[in-house]
Hints:
By secondary structure, the protein is of the alpha+beta class. The protein contains three helices and three strands.
Amino acid sequence: xxxxxxxxxxxxxxxxxxxxxxxxxxxxxxxxxxxxxxxxxxxxxxxxxxxxxxxxxxxxxxxxxxxxxxxxxxxxxxxxxxxxxxxxxxxxxxxxxxxxxxxxxxxxxxxxxxxxxxxxxxxxxxxxxxxxxxxxxxxxxxxxxx
Length: 146
């Protein structure tokens, strides 16, 4: 029987343990700009997927995704040991790392919304100075006599 609440609690705990270990305990320079964003655990609690993002060294620098993935792969055993010691479950879940694409998707959506706002502003600017093609009031007013 699958206990989803227990799986969510374990995923949250694994996320915290891995993030703390990456930040304070593992001295690999490839892991300096990694942020753990989420974790998912299967219903049988045997596999955990940890989602992460990578930042660049500066705001303008492109993140090194390959180096980050290689660093996480190398640290996988140590991280799994820390997860086993920190959770106290009977079977320590295997760890898999996946690059989180949600921030990129959110950035793309923001860009699309900005372009849509700019297009709306342009239409409003053109419409403000527009005049009707025909009469100003195209609806005819009928006299009572008609």
